[in-house]
Amino acid sequence: MRLEPELPARIRSIADAEAIERAGTRHELPCGDGTMAWRRWGEGAPVVLLHGGSGSWNHWVRNIGALVRAGRQVWIPDLPGFGESARPPRGGDADALPGPMEAALQQLLGDAPVDLVGFSFGSMVAVFMAAQRPERVRRLVISGAPALGINPEWKLELKPWTHLPPGDELDAVLRENLATLMLARPESIDALALALHAANLPRDRMKLRRLAKTDILRHTLPQLTCPVHGIWGAEDALYRGVQQRLEPALALAPGFRSLALIPGAGHWVQFERAEAFDRALAEALGPA
């Protein structure tokens, strides 16, 4: 399927990101005391992308086009408590989201199985969904997932930013935090990365998350019945120095198939090395 004319193939600016958003169809579904925002692009077999913590649908802005070109129907929510979505009815961490997510998918797609792709915090949500509703998830791809129990000593020091007004000082702090956690190469911290990050951070209403620092995925992966793939940035700050432990951890899933490590990419691998990530994702997902 060809891209719509208004859908840019390369996403380099806020204008490009806005064009991607305009090309999608927005859906609002009940969630907690408000609604959950979903966006859809393309036609074909459905693939659902789940963003990371303090993020929104735009964590995937550079990957939508490749999936649409491949003939996939792309669904991306702002997860409950992030972006434009209300908090979940109960709870404040990844384990509170499978219920609202399944309720939304029932309304959007009925009982149709989906390919599920999760990034960071979204990977935890995706694993929980696959464990609780195995009939829903045809294939699972996770990226940058925490809570695997292989780096219990990791601790990243991010600079505080909430006290700063918009301006150069805030931008400098956010750039430094992006370099510490999200992106490996200085040139990756461009105006687009900064703008997306700055827009997402104030809309995070799930700030007391703790599961990422546990080993809960290590105990959940053995429950999965679907094929499982991993795609990681080779320089992911969460796994610096312990990348060799990733494959054995993911292999706890009975259906583990592959792990792709993307050179020159940090935690936000699908943004930093979008084309390489898209190739790895296409290989993991296989034919639609």
Automatic annotation (TrEMBL):
Residues 46-167 form the AB hydrolase-1 domain. Pfam families: Abhydrolase_1. Gene3D superfamilies: alpha/beta hydrolase. It comes from the Bacteria. InterPro entries: AB_hydrolase_1 (IPR000073), AB_hydrolase_fold (IPR029058), Epox_hydrolase-like (IPR000639). GO terms for molecular function: catalytic activity. This is Pimeloyl-ACP methyl ester carboxylesterase. It comes from Quisquiliibacterium transsilvanicum.
